[in-house]
């Protein structure tokens, strides 16, 4: 089997935030299968070690490391990125994936939940992105992929704060592209549709909602975490060297139809 050189990312080092499970873990697995050295991140060291062992056992061509830090805390992020670069090597690829969902009508949404979701979904990308980009811009190359959402574009009742964080993350992506592009760093977003993970477990189990997702999606099904891998590998590859500030929606067509 031959791979076009434009898609070859073997030998690169990639950090995926929030990769102890779900989408982040699938993206980390994909990057490792493409020959990257991968760093898994999350707050629960035990869970991360287990995830890394699972990946390591899967006969991957790249190596797997872990880095336990909270992406919402500036000091932990600074120490975490410095530690990763020292232990593993210079970061070529960053995937800002860590995130959370809180569903409640806006009138019932508390101040503390507002700050929590903003910190986890938006501030985290700024903090981790800034630390990584300090080093990438100095070296003159790097790829950053921010995991946005179809809710960067559209919203439903009960998820306004989540959509606000993801809409802002899309604009942060464009701003990072503007600031860091001149130094060889490309920054793009990937916007998943409805994907079956722990985060959406309650929705998957709600038969009425689940059926609505299937009807509403041209592809006729929920997304799987593996559906997102190709888009991230592409955005992290030399094939995307002249693509920056864009969001690639991987949603079975959902954001395109009424
Ligand atoms: P999960 O809840 O399954 O996983 C979230 C991951 O983020 C976990 O590994 C968790 O690890 C980590 N995490 C959460 N908070 C922090 C923190 N403060 N510091 C470090 N790590 C953290 O979510 P998904 O895999 O479903 O979602 C991943 C991303 O994709 C999110 O940004 C989400 O918004 C986005 N997305 C998901 C969609 C879906 O349908 N599932 C659709 C569109 C976008 P730990 O708790 O151990 O720290």
UniProtKB/TrEMBL annotation:
* Family classification: Belongs to the short-chain dehydrogenases/reductases (SDR) family.
Q: Where is the Ketoreductase domain?
A: 12-183
Q: Which UniProt keywords apply?
A: Oxidoreductase
What is the recorded name of this protein?
SDR family oxidoreductase
Please name the Gene3D superfamilies in this protein's record: NAD(P)-binding Rossmann-like Domain
State the organism of origin: Streptomyces shaanxiensis
InterPro entries, A to Z: KR_dom, NAD(P)-bd_dom_sf, Sc_DH/Rdtase_CS, SDR_fam
> What NCBIfam families does its record include?
PRK07231.1 (NF005559)
CDD domains with a match to the protein in the record = Ga5DH-like_SDR_c
Would you indicate the residue range of the signal peptide? none
One matching Pfam family, short form? adh_short_C2
């Amino acid at each position: 089997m031959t791979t076009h050189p434009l898609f070859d990312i073997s030998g690169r080092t990639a950090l995926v935030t929030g990769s102890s499970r779900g989408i982040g873990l699938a993206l980390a697995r994909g990057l490792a299968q493409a020959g990257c050295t991968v760093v898994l991140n999350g707050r629960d060291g035990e869970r991360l070690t287990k995830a890394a062992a699972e990946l390591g056992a899967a006969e991957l061509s790249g190596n797997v490391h872990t880095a336990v830090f909270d992406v919402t805390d500036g000091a932990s992020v600074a120490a975490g990125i410095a530690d990763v670069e020292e232990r593993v090597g210079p970061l070529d690829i960053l995937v800002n994936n860590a995130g959370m969902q809180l569903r409640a009508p806006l009138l019932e949404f508390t101040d503390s939940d507002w700050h929590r979701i903003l910190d986890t979904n938006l501030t985290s990308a700024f903090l981790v992105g800034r630390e990584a980009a300090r080093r990438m811009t100095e070296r003159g190359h790097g790829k950053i992929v921010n995991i946005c959402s179809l809710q960067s574009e559209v919203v439903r009742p009960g998820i306004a704060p989540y959509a606000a964080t993801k809409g802002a993350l899309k604009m942060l992506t464009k701003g990072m592209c503007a600031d860091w592009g001149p130094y060889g760093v490309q920054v793009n977003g990937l916007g998943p549709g409805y994907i079956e993970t722990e985060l959406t477990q309650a929705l998957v189990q709600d038969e009425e909602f689940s059926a609505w997702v299937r009807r509403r999606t041209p592809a006729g099904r929920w997304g799987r975490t593996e559906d997102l891998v190709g888009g991230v590998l592409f955005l992290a590859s030399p094939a995307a060297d002249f693509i920056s500030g864009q969001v690639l929606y991987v949603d079975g067509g959902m954001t395109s139809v009424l």
